[in-house]
Amino acid sequence: MEICTECNCKITQGVFDFSIENIGVPLCMPHQQWLAEIEENTTAENLTLYFALKQRGVPASIEHYDGHKHIDIVIHEAKVHIEVDGRQHFNHKQALSDLKRTYYSFLEGYFTLRIPNTLVHEHLDETAEYLVSFMNESYKRVHELYSGTTYRLLKCSTR
Ligand SMILES: [Zn+2]
């Protein structure tokens, strides 16, 4: 039985085949609908990286709105933000605005990783695997910091 990458529910072979053919990852019917809605407000690279993380078991959220701004990908458990950046982020005004966002997120306890689109295009698996290692280590540190006890890693893993 196949499962939905987003919610882990079981899906039929027909739904699986349709989803792989049209989307590239297995999604249940409600999540195919959900994707159609969020697709307009995100980039192909962000979606690709998001699903690569979900398929590795990372508890990620996409296009998260924190009350002030949208963040491409958030992993609350590890207190990490991921921003998937296109060429416009090389512009100095955008770069300065990015730096400020990184700073304010850091004040709230979140570390920001900025991933250029080119990494998603050219080195998706290696990038996703480094992010998983990063997430596991960050999760461990965040939880030890607040509890003083040693925490096991997140359940996600590299393939
Ligand atoms: Zn689903």
Biggest sheet: strands, sense, closure?
4 strands, mixed
The CATH superfamily of the largest domain is known as VSR Endonuclease
Helix content estimate: 40-55%
Give the radius of gyration.
16 Å
Q: Terminal Cα separation, in Å?
A: 20 Å
Specify the structural class. alpha+beta
Gross geometry: globular
| β-strand amount | 15-25%
Helix and strand element order: EEHHHEEEHEHH
Small-molecule components bound? zinc ion
DSSP strand count: 6
Low-confidence stretches: none
The CATH architecture of the largest domain would be: 3-Layer(aba) Sandwich
CATH class of the largest domain equals: Alpha Beta
The overall number of domains is 2
Discrete helix count: 6
Average of pLDDT = 90
Describe the 3D structure.
- The chain has helices at residues 13-22, 29-38, 44-54, 92-107, 117-122, 124-147; strands spanning 2-3, 10-11, 61-65, 70-75, 80-85, 111-116.
- It is α+β, with helices and mostly antiparallel strands.
- The protein folds into two domains: 1-41, no CATH class; 45-159, VSR Endonuclease (Endonuclease, Chain A, 3-Layer(aba) Sandwich).
- The protein has a four-stranded mixed β-sheet, with helices on both faces. The chain has a two-stranded antiparallel sheet with strand order 1-2.
- Helix 3 crosses helix 6.
- The structure holds zinc ion.
